[in-house]
Design brief:
Layout lengths: L2 H8 L6 E5 H17 L3 E2 L9 H9 L5 E3 L2 H9 L4 E4 L6 H11 L4 E6 L13 E6 L12 H14 L4 E6 L10 H24 L6 E4 L2 H4 L34 E4 L9 H6 L9 E12 L2 E4 L19 E3 L6 E5 L4 E4 L11 E6 L2 H5 L4 E5 L5 E4 L10
Parallel strand pairs: 1-16, 2-9, 3-4, 4-5, 5-6, 6-7, 7-8, 8-9
Antiparallel strand pairs: 1-10, 10-11, 10-15, 11-14, 12-15, 13-14, 16-17
The structure holds pyridoxal-5'-phosphate.
Length: about 400
């Protein structure tokens, strides 16, 4: 990221402030589109990362087939932005959600949800298609690969009919706990194997699986294109004697779709995992030093209400990376205070500004009403339109 340019753009504004280097974001959109194409897959980015109508449209312009959403608010906002093919990767349980889905499906060319129970499709509006979620190791949602998932899909197809069963989905969130590259490789292998094995078992039972949906930013960096070409980390095919990656490509009968989210902005967790480089991070929170209680400690005006506090990568030290001042650790946060520490003097004075690449970009963006987009053609404000909930009737 061009941090000097971002700091200059933020200079007239109060802090804390979320800023994006649009040229870096655009390069990320292009790189992921090419990477997924090289794997023989389609891209359906998880748009909960940015919750932005403009960024969703840019992802589609780069070739994404549609977007993934986690909330109805997101799905409705992206529909309003003109995206006509949406996957709500969350079970839509309860009458309020079903009612909103009914209104939404009428506005879209294609709408699907993912579930891991037949109970979750009761009352599902006509026209909404369904993915069955498999647990490939994250242990959040999903039935185990193989027999448990086959039994679930058989019940699902009995309930909604084969036409509305679109395929199998998994989310390899356990990749964030990976201690090294081989654990990331294993998470990528596990998601492929879970989908392929279960699809094959379903085929043997006469149930065709039209789509396989997988992925996260960390595992996308560890899937190897066919032919042993290097993956995102520079490694080529698995070394002799190790388990060879299972081949998975879209075919005439089965489309494979990837759902990375974080890649659009990048964050300190990806840097710590080795799945994105620092210069590929597009988002920073600009903060002001408000206190320097001693030479080894400075306090900024950005705490857990401006920077994500949900760190799941053990390898990351602190709550972000302070760009250009890597000797600093964002060691603690309270709501409006971030405490920077350093073994050597911090070198910071009251009034200085710093740019922090947050630990987790998705939950950081969700804290900001708008993001300042820094672009050669002129800077602009991008409202984070899809954030929040709609609790009312
Ligand atoms: C169901 C689902 N799919 C895809 C993603 C995207 O993964 P990432 O944010 O690691 O890119 C997420 C992220 O939480 C998710 O929950």
């Amino acid at each position: 990221m061009r941090v000097e340019r971002m700091l200059a753009a933020a200079a007239p504004c109060d802090t804390p402030l979320a800023v994006v280097d649009v040229s870096v974001m655009e390069a990320n959109l292009e790189a992921m589109q090419s990477r997924v194409a090289a794997l023989g897959w389609s891209l359906r980015p998880h748009a909960k990362t940015h919750k932005s109508a403009t960024v969703a449209r840019r992802q589609i312009a780069h070739g994404a087939r549609g977007v993934t959403a986690a909330t109805l608010r997101e799905a409705e906002s992206f529909a309003t932005a003109g995206v006509d093919d949406i996957l709500l990767a969350h079970p839509p349980v309860g009458p309020a959600k079903l009612q909103r889905l009914g209104a939404l499906v009428a506005r879209l060319r294609r709408l699907a949800v993912s579930v891991d129970s037949v109970e979750a499709v009761r009352g599902l509006p006509a026209g909404v298609e369904v993915f069955w979620e498999i647990d490939s190791g994250h242990h959040r949602l999903g039935t185990l690969p193989g027999e448990a998932s086959v039994a679930g899909v058989v019940r699902l197809v009995d309930s909604i009919g084969a036409e509305r069963f679109r395929g199998l989905l998994t989310f390899p969130g356990h990749a964030y706990a990976a201690g090294d590259d081989s654990a990331l490789d294993a998470a990528a292998m596990a998601e492929k194997a879970a989908l392929l094995g279960t699809a094959q078992d379903l085929g043997d039972r006469g149930i065709s699986v039209r789509e396989l949906s997988l992925g996260s930013t960390p595992t996308l960096a560890h899937h190897r294109p066919p032919g042993g070409a290097p993956d995102r980390t520079g490694a080529s095919a698995a070394p002799a004697g190790t388990h060879q990656p299972t081949a998975l490509r879209s075919t005439e009968n089965t489309l494979v779709e990837a759902r990375p989210g974080v890649y659009v902005y990048g964050d300190a967790q990806q840097i710590a995992l080795g799945t994105m480089r620092r210069q590929e991070c597009a988002l920073a929170v600009i903060a002001t030093v408000v206190s320097t209680p001693d030479r080894h400690r400075a306090v900024i005006d950005a705490g857990s209400k401006a920077l994500a506090a949900d760190v799941s990568v053990a390898r990351l030290r602190g709550f972000g990376v302070v760009v250009g001042r890597e000797h600093l650790v964002l060691e603690r946060m309270s709501e409006e205070h971030g405490v920077l520490t350093a073994a050597e003097p911090t070198g910071l004075r009251i009034g200085d500004r710093v740019a922090v690449i947050p630990a987790h970009c998705c939950t950081t963006v969700n804290l900001h009403p708008a993001v300042l987009m820094v672009e050669e053609a002129g800077d602009w404000w991008d409202p984070v339109v899809a954030r929040g909930w709609q609790p009312g009737a």
